[in-house]
Specification:
binds nickel (II) ion, 171 residues, Peptide Deformylase, two-stranded antiparallel sheet, alpha+beta, binds ligand GNR, globular
């Protein structure tokens, strides 16, 4: 169990397309454990492996509410099987786009197929924050950030501020 460093935009490693995982083994489970440690420490409600610089199709998530028991979830090779025509708008943030938030409209519900922590195939239908978060994470696997859903003007402004911030802090 370890907390790892989260990459922040603009970083070319966040734009790479993550590779399909061919086996859920102890090494992959160690990566997922580290991802959850890092996500809870941040804190965030989801994390894709590529945010730690590991371009594998692996996502962890916990959308339980404060005061509820922790509910960590693992998604290996997640695929969207179906998405609703109806959209829902959430104010999104991203651990790789620190301190910037913006409304993004996405399908309100989606059905996903994935492998779980044990490598068992599963399907799940999500709505609400879970549906938004799953789509946000699956975007990461394609090298897409929530700012890519914004207008060019808004995206450029956020990326310019992040670049400036990096120059100041030297990270
Ligand atoms: O912690 C996070 N919160 C969040 C809020 C609204 C929509 C998506 C998210 S995901 C984000 C963590 C993150 O960057 N995952 O990739
Ligand atoms: Ni993110």
């Amino acid at each position: 169990m370890a907390i790892r460093q989260i990459l922040t935009a603009p970083d070319p490693r966040l734009k790479q397309k993550s590779k399909t995982v061919d086996a859920v083994d102890d090494g992959l489970r160690r990566l997922m454990d580290d991802m959850l440690d890092t996500m809870y420490d941040a804190p965030g409600i989801g994390l894709a492996a590529v945010q730690l610089g590991v371009p594998k199709r692996v996502v962890v998530m916990d959308v339980s509410r404060e005061g509820e028991p922790a509910a960590p979830q693992h998604f290996v090779n997640p695929e969207i099987l179906w998405a609703s025509d109806e959209l829902a708008t959430y104010e999104e943030g991203c651990l790789s786009v620190p301190e910037h938030y913006a409304d993004v409209a996405r399908p309100a519900r989606c059905r996903v197929r994935f492998l779980d922590y044990q490598g068992e195939i599963r399907e799940l239908e999500a709505d609400g924050l879970m549906a938004t978060c799953l789509q946000h994470e699956i975007d990461h696997l394609e090298g897409v950030l929530f700012v890519d859903h914004l207008s060019t003007v808004k995206r450029s402004m956020i990326l310019r501020k992040l670049t400036k911030q990096k120059r100041l802090t030297g990270v």
